[in-house]
């Protein structure tokens, strides 16, 4: 059984997908990019600000499923330039306790939706 998770505190999907799907106790989130959910504008001022917006969007999706970053067991980070890894990693890491940080991969890709610099998806378990 699956339950669709939606919130107005994160950007609405820009295609035929949902913000997240809960299957049993496992939450599968769609990738989040740096849309400001209040204005609909992309937040691309700098890589730290962009990454913070992505993480705040993800926080809202997790909250809609009654979860937090403590529930995250796996993250996937897609970046357009590996030279931004350190800055992205610092912002991302500030949302987790090092002792309970999830498994993760970070992959450089040729291009991301809306030409953003970072997209993050997660899997979380209650």
From TrEMBL:
Gene3D superfamilies: RutC-like
SUPFAM superfamilies: YjgF-like
Pfam families xref list: Ribonuc_L-PSP
CDD domains in the cross-refs: YjgF_YER057c_UK114_family (cd00448)
NCBIfam families: Rid family detoxifying hydrolase
UniProt record similarity statement: Belongs to the RutC family.
The protein's name: RidA family protein
Natural source organism: Gelatiniphilus marinus
């Amino acid at each position: 059984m699956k339950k669709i998770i939606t919130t107005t505190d994160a950007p609405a999907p820009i295609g035929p997908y949902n913000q997240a799907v809960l299957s049993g106790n496992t939450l599968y989130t769609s990738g989040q990019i740096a849309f400001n959910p209040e204005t609909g504008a992309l937040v691309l001022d700098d890589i730290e600000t962009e990454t913070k917006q992505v993480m705040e969007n993800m926080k809202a999706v997790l909250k809609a499923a009654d979860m937090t970053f403590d529930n995250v067991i796996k993250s996937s980070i897609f970046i357009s330039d590996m030279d931004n890894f350190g800055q992205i990693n610092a912002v991302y890491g500030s949302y987790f306790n090092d002792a309970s940080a999830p498994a993760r991969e970070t992959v450089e890709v040729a291009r991301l939706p809306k030409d953003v610099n970072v997209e993050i998806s997660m899997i979380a378990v209650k």
